[in-house]
Amino acid sequence: MKGSVARHLTVQKLGHVSFKPLQQPSFSISLSDSFRFQSLLESEAQSADSIIPSSSPPLDIDIDSNVDDKDFILSQDFFCTPDYITPDGQYISNSLDCNKENIACPKSPEKIKTVKSKRQRQDGFNLSCHEQVVELAKDTFGTDEINTEKAIGTEPQKNHSYVSQSAVALRCRVMPPPCIKNPYQKDASETDIDPFGNQRSKCAGILPTIIGGDGLSRYWTDFHEIEQIGNGNFSCVFKVLKRIDGCFYAVKKSTRLLHQDTERRKALMEVQALAALGFHENIVGYYSSWFENEQLFIQMELCDHSLSIRKPSKLSTEGELLEIIYQMAKALQFIHEKGIAHLDVKPDNIYIKNGVYKLGDFGCATLLDSTLPIEEGDARYMPQEVLNDNYDHLDKVDIFSLGAAIYELIRGSALPESGHLSLNLREGKLPLLPGHSVQFQNLLKAMIDPDPVRRPSAKELVKNPIFDRDQRTGKNHYS
Ligand SMILES: Nc1ncnc2c1ncn2[C@@H]1O[C@H](COP(=O)(O)OP(=O)(O)OP(=O)(O)O)[C@@H](O)[C@H]1O
Ligand SMILES: [Mg+2]
To answer: Which residues surround ligand 2, an ion (CB under 5 A)?
Structure first.
């Protein structure tokens, strides 16, 4: 959890809650946390006969056995900094209503003296969501003790005890949020990805979909929205100012609510592709992402605009078109070498920033080896083989799409979805392009060749002599 320190909480008599700041952040997903939590689990398991665990791991919560538990009041406010200043510590998904603080707990079970450790601890907390926590405990500790608890937990509570639902949430938080395997990242081991993988079940929803328990929005807390700068089929994109660093960014918000875990996973693939790719000058920069109110937010590098033909554009000279082809070929070479295909190359998804072209919108990105589901991009830019469900040369699909996109820019109006023109394009037939060199027209034809094998690869494109700076006078763009 960035911006906050882990605290060692000692619960004492009501009103006496002490904090011991620790060196390490408490909820970031790191191996050191994993081990600390693991040692907590182990120490709890070992201390079945003692109320207070013998060791005091950082996240432990010690309860003085002499303290009468009727007076406990725990509130998350005592020991957690607000979530909104800890953007990288995602919230745990759970079914608790975090707004219901300090609810009386009429049916907490009576403590049975012979069963200690976890049981007493839970009883000591007097949790109103007893069953939920019991289930969590079962997930976490993998014991059958829970059944005993349910059996004995029927007697009404005699004391006036209170419980904070946030304390329950904290209990959930002890188990850090799940890590999601990035399918585009081949070199991460399973344990690196999620050390608690085999201990999760109830808490393992992909990511929380609610605003933080404190009701604050990370988007509105961290960013000042300037204006909407774009929208696609699935999202709106805003120019924002990040409050803490004073820089402008683009934030893409999914417009559809992602209710299901599977929907969220699918949406996340765009982010995972961007993150796995890393930096390249000709790929839109990726900074961060998070879920909020069942929407995915992606913070990206802000570009000036896209090449969408819906916007007034002065792109017409061959030199400028060659510049786009060259820079996009470099971007494609980079992503293809990482085993990824974009599958939605089109003017809408090529942005320009200070004269540099950047490939964006990795919403359809997939793996070249077809081990991931394939979702084709905009059909107007798809070659025939994809429409025939042939996915053997996905890198060449991107080359065709780039060729089609360039032709659209020359044409100055959107490509049709069907009809003669799109048919001709898929057959590799281009009308004569007055004002453009034969060399240029041949290059374009090669890019839209109906046979994917005959299309140049991105690497071959980059090396094409047409981009050789010596051949061009007055311009030195092709470095
Ligand atoms: N980083 C950015 N900088 C500037 N403008 C951007 C940026 N990202 C997106 N846009 C603008 O927002 C538009 C929509 O973005 P994007 O294509 O990523 O959304 P989408 O919903 O995935 O689109 P699609 O309908 O193509 O699937 C882009 O065409 C572009 O005009
Ligand atoms: Mg798009």
So the answer is: 232, 348-349, 361
